[in-house]
Amino acid sequence: MSPRRTDARARVVAAAAEMMARHGLNSTSIREMARRADAPLGSTYHHFPGGKQQVVVEAVRHAGDRIDAAIAEHLRTGPAAGLRGFLAMWRERLERSGFHGGCPVLAAAVEEPVDADSDGAAAEAADVFAQWERRLSDALADAGVAVTRAAELATLIVAAVEGAVVLARARREIGPFDRVAAQLERLVAEAVAAL
Q1: What is the pLDDT of residues 71-84, one digit of tens each?
Q2: Who is most buried in 119, 137, 148, 166, counting CB within 10 A?
């Protein structure tokens, strides 16, 4: 079997995450996921017997894990530099996509599925956001920020970055993102410098 055929499942999940980032949860169809992944529609149903809902939940986890790995990598240089790297990653994604690329985790969190009864995607999104918050909070606490303050800052960072991405996409310009990023960097630098 060719390598192209054996990774069909992973390609469908990645295609779903990208479609959700650009078009939202309800505009993401399993047929289009399969087409964009260059995977036979029948094999998609074979790999995902739970249908679109299963693909979406796995796409949220896939995107969440990728972003968590990027956060972890950026934080290796410390919280302030790590935040700058994380923000630069999102800034580059926004500009590269012409302000069309957002966050598939946010799409799953805010959209009610019209074609499924399950709220599995929203629950997975909540878990992913909590994972990112823990990663950021732990890094801040490891740098000496008080545990409660570290948790507060981590929640603020996740919420502010997601909101800044939405504002930049809505306005089709980077200004709102840059203003939020500058404030987040200032807050984290102050928290770390206060030690």
Answers
A1: 999 999 999 999 99
A2: 137
